[in-house]
Specification:
Blueprint: H1 3-14, E1 36-40, E2 43-46, E3 51-54, H2 69-80, H3 90-102, E4 108-112, H4 115-130, E5 134-138, E6 151-152, E7 162-163, H5 170-173, E8 176-179, H6 184-194, E9 198-203, H7 217-230, E10 233-238, H8 249-254, E11 260-263, E12 274-278, H9 280-283, H10 302-314, H11 320-342, E13 347-351, E14 354-358, H12 367-370, H13 375-387, E15 390-391, E16 400-401, H14 408-425
Parallel strand pairs: 3-15, 5-8, 5-9, 9-10, 10-11
Antiparallel strand pairs: 1-2, 2-3, 4-12, 6-7, 11-12, 13-14, 14-16
The chain binds pyridoxal-5'-phosphate (PLP).
Length: 426
């Protein structure tokens, strides 16, 4: 019996679904999750010692490839000096300085341990700063699993959301409005009716949790001008896009200065680290300066900070994002070409080190369009690629991630495998 299957069966006895985060269970694609034994560069090896070329990269953090020697060394050295103190360290000041230097919109920043914590705290802060309750999010954007953000669109225009998870009281989502991504008119109508009640608008500035979906320039400009005019806080949730789509993040690509930004994934270099930061006048409302409470026993953990700092330094090497972006674009374009040759309907897109492919004629622009693609076809493609030793996200609604360890030859190897896989599923 496969060791992966054996571990999965054993795990299911003591861990719900055998996994510690639901998408890992292969629920959408079926089959047995690969249990990772070790990883290096662009590859990981499963419990049966089979090698895979990894396009998940821990869902984003592994931008340098797995186990980069400089990052591993930084963590090992930090560990020698102690694992956690519950008192401030020099590293925390250094990484905060680095984040503020790289992101002009961030004047002050607070470190936390997960993206969920970063967005939850940013929303509390926006509410505390404005004295308003209402928050606006977009359907298909994921901002972690805090109660008020686990919400799906209500029926009809300008309605409040319903909880999208059990265990979330409707009272918790009563103040959350869910609008359509890229719908400028709906956004403008909402601000016209309720603008002076809106504490904040939070979005994935390039969405990666409903496959990859980019906003129009008009949409992000409307977001900035409407929030500014109505005194609402604009939150760019860059937990996924931060330092991955560009060194200046999505906000730099868009030429937008948000009021608050959330970071995670790449900023922690594979360790539990995330952050929220922005305008100094808003950040001054956070405890101990202000009355908005926020805290964490392991916040700014020295090992996480060491991994984050080492990662931020390495991605600032000249040409890093240009190279990463060119390889990712080649992958996305190559997938579409291979599909055309195989007679399979597929479109694709990429930004920096993130890519999406869609079993539909056109690149989607909203959640409704993203969920209209051919899921059955995705499942068959996923498994055909897995047989080829290529590990894609086990869900049709997640973006893919390329690391700098994915060199040109590995991208070509992937495209050759994709051509065979597509021929098999055509
Ligand atoms: C991953 C993600 C989160 C949640 O981060 P966790 O560290 O998993 O809690 C929040 N927002 C976005 C955009 C993400 O991609």
């Amino acid at each position: 019996m496969s060791r992966n299957l054996e571990l999965f069966e054993r795990g299911k006895q003591v861990i719900p679904g055998g996994v510690n985060s639901p998408v890992r269970a292969f629920g959408q694609v079926g089959g047995t999750p690969r249990f990772v034994k070790r990883a290096e560069g662009a590859f990981f090896w499963d419990a049966d010692d089979r090698q895979y070329l990894d396009y998940v990269g821990s869902w984003g953090p592994a931008i340098l490839g797995h186990a980069h020697p400089d990052v591993v060394k930084a963590v090992q050295e930090a560990a020698t000096d102690g694992l956690s103190f519950g008192a401030p360290t020099e590293g925390e000041v250094e990484i905060a300085e680095e984040i503020c230097r790289l992101l002009p919109s961030v004047e002050q920043v607070r470190l936390v341990s997960s993206g969920t914590e970063a967005t939850m705290s940013a929303i509390r802060l926006a509410r505390g700063f404005t004295g308003r309750d209402l928050i606006v999010k977009f359907e298909g954007c994921y901002h972690g699993h805090s109660d008020s953000l686990l919400v799906k669109a209500g029926s009809g225009l300008l309605t409040f959301g319903n909880p999208s998870s059990g265990g979330v009281p409707a009272d918790c989502t009563r103040h959350t409005m869910v609008l359509q991504y890229n719908d400028v008119q709906q956004l403008a109508d909402t601000f016209k009716d309720l603008g002076d009640k809106i504490a904040c608008v939070i979005l994935e500035p390039i969405a990666g949790n409903m496959n990859l979906i980019q906003p129009s320039a008009e949409f992000v400009q409307a977001l900035r001008s409407l929030t500014e005019r109505h005194g609402a806080v604009l939150i760019y949730d860059e937990v996924m896009t931060g330092f991955r789509v560009a060194l200046e993040c999505a906000q730099g690509l868009h030429g937008i200065t948000p009021d608050l930004t959330t970071l995670g994934k790449v900023v922690g270099g594979g360790m539990p680290l995330a952050a929220f930061g922005g305008r100094a006048d808003i950040m001054a409302k956070i405890a101990p300066l202000g009355n908005v409470y926020q805290a964490g026993t392991l916040s700014g953990n020295p090992l996480s900070v060491a991994a984050g700092l080492a990662t931020l330094r390495l991605i600032q090497q000249p040409g890093f994002h240009a190279t990463l972006g060119a390889r990712t674009a080649r992958l996305a374009q190559g997938l579409a070409e291979a599909a055309r040759k195989a007679g399979v309907v597929l479109s694709s897109d990429s930004v920096g080190g993130m890519f999406g492919f869609y079993f539909s004629e056109q690149v989607p622009t909203s959640y409704a369009e993203a969920t209209r693609c051919d899921i059955e076809r995705f499942k068959r493609f996923f498994h055909a690629m897995l047989e080829e030793g290529i590990y894609l996200a086990p869900s049709a609604y997640e973006a893919g991630f390329v690391s700098i360890a994915h060199d040109d030859a590995l991208i070509e190897r992937t495209l050759e495998a994709a051509a065979r896989a597509l021929a098999r599923i055509a």
